[in-house]
Amino acid sequence: MFIEVSWLGRGGQGAVTASRLLARALAKEGMWAQAIVFFGAERRGAPVFAYNRISDKPIKYHHFVYKADVMVVFEQTLLDLTDGYKRLKDDAMIIINYAGDITKSRLRMNTYKIAKVDATSIVLDLGLLVAGIPVINTAMVGAFARAMGMPSIDSIVTAILETWPGKIGELNAEAAKRAYNETEIIKK
Amino acid sequence: MFIEVSWLGRGGQGAVTASRLLARALAKEGMWAQAIVFFGAERRGAPVFAYNRISDKPIKYHHFVYKADVMVVFEQTLLDLTDGYKRLKDDAMIIINYAGDITKSRLRMNTYKIAKVDATSIVLDLGLLVAGIPVINTAMVGAFARAMGMPSIDSIVTAILETWPGKIGELNAEAAKRAYNETEIIKK
Amino acid sequence: MPKTILDELIEAGEYLLPGHTACPGCGSVIALRHVLKALGKDTILVIPASCSSVYQAIYPKVSINVMIYNVAFASAAAVASGISQALERKGFEDVNVVVWGGDGGLIDIGAASVSGAAERNENIFVICYDNEAYMNTGIQRSGSTPPGARTTTTPIGKIVGFKKPMAYIMLMHGVPYVATANVAYPTDLYEKVKKAKSIKGFKFIHIFTPCPPGWRFDDSKTIEVARLAVETGYWILWQAEYRHGRIHFELSPPSRPYLDASKRKPIEEFLKFQGRFSKITEESVKKLREWIEYQWSIAKRFLDMSAQK
Amino acid sequence: MPKTILDELIEAGEYLLPGHTACPGCGSVIALRHVLKALGKDTILVIPASCSSVYQAIYPKVSINVMIYNVAFASAAAVASGISQALERKGFEDVNVVVWGGDGGLIDIGAASVSGAAERNENIFVICYDNEAYMNTGIQRSGSTPPGARTTTTPIGKIVGFKKPMAYIMLMHGVPYVATANVAYPTDLYEKVKKAKSIKGFKFIHIFTPCPPGWRFDDSKTIEVARLAVETGYWILWQAEYRHGRIHFELSPPSRPYLDASKRKPIEEFLKFQGRFSKITEESVKKLREWIEYQWSIAKRFLDMSAQK
Amino acid sequence: MAIYDVITGNDAAAWGARLSKVEVIAAYPITPQTTIVEKLAEWVEKGELNAKFIAVESEHSAMAAVIGASAAGVRAFTATSSQGLLYMIEMVSWAVGARTPVVMAIVNRALGPPWNIWSEHTDALMTRDTGWIQFWAANNQEVMDSIIQAYRVAEDKKVLLPAMVMLGGFVLSHTAMPVKIHDQNKVDQYLSPYEPPHYVLNPKISEAFAYGNILFPWDYAKVRLSIEKAMRNAVDVIKRAAKEFHEIFGIWHGDLIKEVNTDDAEIVIFALGAVAEQAEATLEVLRRNGIKVGVAKIRVFRPFPKEEIAKIADKASHVIVIDRDISFGWDGILAGEVKATLHEYKVDTPVTTKIMGIGGDDILPEHIEKAVKEVIKK
Amino acid sequence: MAIYDVITGNDAAAWGARLSKVEVIAAYPITPQTTIVEKLAEWVEKGELNAKFIAVESEHSAMAAVIGASAAGVRAFTATSSQGLLYMIEMVSWAVGARTPVVMAIVNRALGPPWNIWSEHTDALMTRDTGWIQFWAANNQEVMDSIIQAYRVAEDKKVLLPAMVMLGGFVLSHTAMPVKIHDQNKVDQYLSPYEPPHYVLNPKISEAFAYGNILFPWDYAKVRLSIEKAMRNAVDVIKRAAKEFHEIFGIWHGDLIKEVNTDDAEIVIFALGAVAEQAEATLEVLRRNGIKVGVAKIRVFRPFPKEEIAKIADKASHVIVIDRDISFGWDGILAGEVKATLHEYKVDTPVTTKIMGIGGDDILPEHIEKAVKEVIKK
Amino acid sequence: MSKSEEHLLLPISHPTKGAGGKTGTWRVFKPVIIEEKCIKCMMCWMYCPDAAIEVSSRQEVPRVNYDYCKGCLICYEVCPVKAIRKEREV
Amino acid sequence: MSKSEEHLLLPISHPTKGAGGKTGTWRVFKPVIIEEKCIKCMMCWMYCPDAAIEVSSRQEVPRVNYDYCKGCLICYEVCPVKAIRKEREV
Ligand SMILES: Cc1ncc(C[n+]2csc(CCOP(=O)(O)OP(=O)(O)O)c2C)c(N)n1
Ligand SMILES: Cc1ncc(C[n+]2csc(CCOP(=O)(O)OP(=O)(O)O)c2C)c(N)n1
Ligand code: SF4
Ligand code: SF4
Ligand code: SF4
Ligand code: SF4
Ligand code: SF4
Ligand code: SF4
Ligand SMILES: [Mg+2]
Ligand SMILES: [Mg+2]
Question: Based on the domain organization, do F118 and F151 belong to the same domain?
Fold first, then answer.
């Protein structure tokens, strides 16, 4: 097994943390996972790239992911803004945070597998905001688990609670669980 | 021709300047002369070593003088204090600033050629003191000219006046001239 | 209608171009906008490593429409000295050579070069925007961080020292002009920069500029937080000129009421908005109160002094 | 007969051993003698590049009988911080960690590390002996050189800036203890160091120490020159403690009379002994007078402040 | 009990320092080093690590403070990158003359101007003359383990020199991967508390002395050359440290070098840190294509493992050195030293310098493959 | 009209700057560099040199100030030694990225601790990766002339890099010897006023722009490699500068290298600066003893004259490199680069490193003779 | 750049509006000025960190440039007459 | 030092009287205390830069240690009762 994941978010949304959480959760299930980040000169709001490499044996590669098997998109505009499609394998899966009717989105529905979740609403509902910005990262990890069938949502919850013991952790775990449950796999 | 000179003084007495003046005066007569200095960690009062190498053609050596043909000594004690004799050729000339009867000195009169001058008195007489210390360097250059027969006292005076235009220069030129005249060559 | 400062500000145009890369609600860029309006086109900004080296945007574009020279962290005041002397040597006298840097660059690592340039009375401006931590590297404590504030190197708000009173320190250098400013009072800031422009020699301006992500408050509250700093007496606005052995010190209008301590709002009002103080201990609050008292006690002394002249 | 300070000084023994390599008449070593008497055996001197790195003598011997750590020029206050924290970590609380350095090392190149250690309130002493130039390298101008003094980099006495008022600058930092001293008043110095010893945290002492070769005066006049600095009002002796938001400032007895400007001797008396001022211009003398006025104006303000407490 | 976790290289560095029970930390923030320091500050403030954290005002002061602390007899730690390393270089060099065995993590980053925060090795390589022992870590486990080993080596009485541990900026520093965090007891068994040499800067336990006053040339030359002797001694100490580490923890990162498939290799690639591991990862593809390539991961750059390098190169028909660095007007820095070594050992295997990845330019497997194929074509 | 005088190396350096009509000088005192700066300060204060002298508060600021001045379009100069050079090294490296063609004299001195003020080359060699052009002067005439040439080279539009001129501490800096001080008109003819490149930091004569903001890796890598191109261009520019200097002033110090008796030499000695001249002086005795020795005085260390060195070594049967420096855990620095070069050029002449003169330890003719004789015995 | 000038790659940046991209896509809420309510005090203009409120004289109602407004809502907060409302965007 | 410890050449200096040599040879003039005149005020002792005036209690007349006196004559200058005279030496 060798899966490459690409995360597309904005400074402040927590894409980097998401990829690390995912790696940690996968490790709990015996997987070897790397979480990589491309730091631009990010102020809050600028696009942020993060990646994972997942395998059943140690990975020694140290470059970015250029053709992802899975892309987790925090906001539709980012895909256009960053030429995201170019960095996808032909049969890749896109997991997207999207509120409305996905068929009305600008997504290239024909080309890729698609899973969607309205993470922003989940998170606003839970009051998970930092300095006014809804932090949807844990929710998106939950969505990943659902869309990819790994890791288990339990491992994710454990990883979240380890990372933030206490109230914040619980809220985030809740966000992940809800997203896990609410993710729709539009196209497989 | 290849002559190596060693100057023995104390911080504040101007041995370094003396060796440079000598080189400059010699250059006026077409000679090639180097003036080298060993800087210890000199505060005022500590022993200071300076050297010359003199030749009729360019010198490319860059080390100190270990066996001098001529040693100019600003103060008798320095010879003992610094093991000065070890740094002399067997038939070297010692030019010393000494006030009294040289035969009463601790100098090894038998081994070396000796010239003496009472530079301190000359200089005190002229009021050539810096911060209380009699500065005998120009006088000793005058003594050198007399003892070694080169350079001419005129070249020395010119070099002095170039170095310190004005009153100070004249006083120093006077010191050099007096020393030139008063130097006794005890043993040749 | 007579021309007001507001008209002047509008007519001055924008040297800070929209579409820069500062965070939403950044106090530092608000200050920079007005500083540049006062300085005008004939300006060279010397910028040490800081948020401003980043928010000006990335090669091959830049979001600031005056000359910018980005320099190493500790070097700004010295680079500016070199530029200023070179221009003088070439006969260009009326160019503003301006260091625009953060508290870390000018109050910590670059303190010796700022102090050295001040002592030599170089003909430069040193303008420090103070967001009270190393923001560009992710909110580490600086020498300008107030006691009790949480940063990533004081994660539970340990008291290390004392916010370094840089403007007073510069004042002691006996340089021609020193002032403090605050982004909530842009016309005061604008006038101070104009004033500084009219003076030859070393000018130091210290601007209070809240930082929403670094202080953990909502982006929209920048001005409110900044204003509270003045109203609680935490940040005092003043300017001072040194002339012939005397310091002429004056409180700026927004701070005048607070000379009377009873007029000041309680410090808690300033603290409560900011996540960095959310777990502040009573001990730290006491330290902060002492710090405020200290700042005012100095200001008062200088006020008398000027009165006495 | 009751024990006087003089008895104390005698009983303290000598930590500065005879046969060191300072120049005859060196003011710095006179000060060091008394500083060491006050500090005693449990002391580590951290010495940046300066005359003191040389006058302590050459390996394998040393002329000072307390622990000495010679360090790079700009690093002294930071090295001392590290030592102090290490000793605290190991449970040794009553060791004096003392920076002993010159004006160049502590007021110029090392200013940021001194200021940083002060801001962090490290438990160290920083003692600056001020001979008003870089003496060890042969009398170049420093930020502490008075206007009009000839040095090898200001060979005809060009006015560059302003002698940096370092003690006032340190005072502004709000550190527990700041004082000035003068080698002509060794008991005053001794008592100040003793006082500083009793205080935990950052202590700064600025000592005026004439240098015969650097200032070009006769070796025997060191004390006279030093005393004239006080009597002309050029050097003001004071000490100040910071406690809970307040500075407690007091003039030391030798300087008290000169609060009244009319009691001060004319500055020319101080200048005339010194070759470095032999060609001083009227303009420079004016600058010097302004500087003196400035120093006193600040002292006065702080005096009132303490009176007011 | 050891914990497995997925952590960044910077967290691994912080863990290395924590497990080594450092007593004084002084550091100054700089991207990408910051999170090392933040982690340590957090542990100290929360009482999980019994150390002093000094939030100094510059890197020069950071190194100064750890030198002071080390001289006063404690184990001291710092970390930096790029400009920060250059800003402190006077003190970096000083730590050697002071013989203070501090350990420093360097998160490699390019130098300005223009500003660039990404990975490049030139920063740490610029300090290669100073007398610091240099470890280059290829992955996060090695980061942590090398810091622990570095203290063993640095503090060894035969060595007494400071040591650096390098990790690539972002490539390792901000990349999370599985790491085994060792059991404290085992680390204690491996690394005893720091015992300073026969002098300590503490008047309560040592007689007065002075360190560092002027030495005349003849004495100075001896003292400096004694540093070279210590450096030579370090070779064996490093080997032993790696061996015992393996015995206790079961982990082997190599000692001076870690060789991968060099035995039968016609082409050997030499590289440092994560770049070497990237080359290692690429091997598989190349070997699959029938190209006999091996990788020599240079783990210790100072003392430079001349003998080992000469041996490896001797067996191969071509050497490729990948340098994520450049010495302008000269060569890749590692390449230069490999070439010099081969000349010294009379090994005439040709060496090709490949400068790659400057300023964080991503090094892809394709780049390495291409380099290998070019050499084959020749 | 040219003047002959007997002056120290430091005075010669000051004269070099003066004749080059430098416009801004910023410097900080350090033994043994001080008298360069004192001389310049004196000329400026007396109005003999129309320049600004900035008495900065540290070396970091000295280099910062000359970078600023150069960027604003003037010719700038500084000088330092040892600790001072290390203290400013961040800015030394910065000047290259800033492409400011400043010239700096380095009076070589050993590094502390312990304190030592005497000659050693390690200080300047530690900056060899930064991208500065490096001239090493063998005598006082060459000190002066190299500074003038350095401005020609540094400011050349094909180069635009800063340049250092090295002189041995005390050995040259404080040793007086005859020097021809050139006629200003001739120097003006040789060296035109500094014309900055297409941007100048002066809003009165140039449009607004920013220099130095962040570059992404792909752009950064190109920009850094362009520095390497400039360094390569420098080779020809240096040669031309030396040639024209010879034409105008009748003085030839060599260009990249000055060869002495290498033609028929069996043993060639490579060395830098006054050490090389010391070796040259020793030749006479050795040749008298029938030993065929030559000396290659390496005048330019960056760009490193690989081709020239390979050629010279190829003709000889043994090379001795005298290093007044040491890179701990490695080799003499010049020796290392010579060895690497020979490997690259497939020259198998053996190379012997001789580390001598550390911390000002005097290098005597006997030491050099001994080194040669040892090689012969082998 | 010609090949021969490659050694002189001076990375100079030019002042450009939108150098950091159309930052307007960063917003969660956007401010909307209610013309009728506005008293043209220019507080919103004065405090906008992004120079994203445009005005050429005091006689005009300021306009938000949504390409560059980052939605910090400082303008909303400082408007003395509540002439600005916020609208959810994402 | 044994061969095996050569790598550990830590140049430590030990406190020693006369570390800089017998500095007394530097003198031009030397101070001589005139016992009869001395009022034991200890000013000379207090100000001697070289700690070359010795005294163990206030009851004694101080003694000059000529091995280390550098002849600066500060003592001569500060003596309030002119109980010190100077004598030419070189
Ligand atoms: C020598 C050096 N050390 C550290 C850094 C890393 N650094 C860049 S910006 C910065 C923080 C700047 O803080 P401040 O000056 O307060 O400006 P702010 O980021 O808060 O705007 C730091 C530590 C650097 N660039 N150079
Ligand atoms: C980084 C660095 N720059 C310069 C020097 C050279 N230096 C040594 S001592 C000294 C002057 C010290 O002046 P100050 O601190 O006033 O002490 P003083 O010599 O006057 O006692 C200088 C410039 C140095 N050692 N290190
Ligand atoms: S971190 Fe703070 S100071 Fe920096 S750009 Fe963002 S808001 Fe402004
Ligand atoms: S130069 Fe001055 S300060 Fe230095 S040792 Fe001599 S007298 Fe003392
Ligand atoms: S929301 Fe912020 S950025 Fe947008 S216009 Fe208002 S103040 Fe400007
Ligand atoms: S702040 Fe409000 S009232 Fe004032 S100009 Fe802006 S919208 Fe109009
Ligand atoms: S002359 Fe100077 S050194 Fe000698 S005893 Fe008197 S004060 Fe001391
Ligand atoms: S100063 Fe004079 S009176 Fe006082 S103790 Fe010394 S010799 Fe006696
Ligand atoms: Mg800041
Ligand atoms: Mg001084």
Answer: yes
